[in-house]
Amino acid sequence: MRTLLNIIWLVLSGFWLFLGYAFAALIMVVLIVTIPWGIAAWRIGVYSLWPFGKDVVDRPTAGVGSAIGNVVWVVLAGWWLALGHIASALALAITIIGLPFAWANLKMVPIALLPLGKQIVDQP
Known about the structure:
Layout: H1 2-30, H2 35-49, E1 54-58, H3 64-92, H4 99-113, E2 118-122
Antiparallel strand pairs: 1-2
Helix pairs in contact: 1-2, 1-3, 3-4
């Protein structure tokens, strides 16, 4: 079932969200100082391609550095990636079949806004 959901997700919104995250990662890597944010953007972008069967959990070793980094992230790229998730959720919520995917998009907004201090793990 996860595979079917992921394939439908990929076609409806996953690919476009991945492109947004890849673009953010490219910008962050080009700026050199923001390479850690580029790595985080790429990690979340891959997650946005195939999200079903994975969970986002807090990393226990995250501290003040992650909090400060998240502030920088929100200013540079987080807000428009979160808006992309919200816009995609609104478009998917128009149909009954799209409702679970809209909900999945809305669940990804917090990680789009505050990615540092989180890790993506496989569900059991």
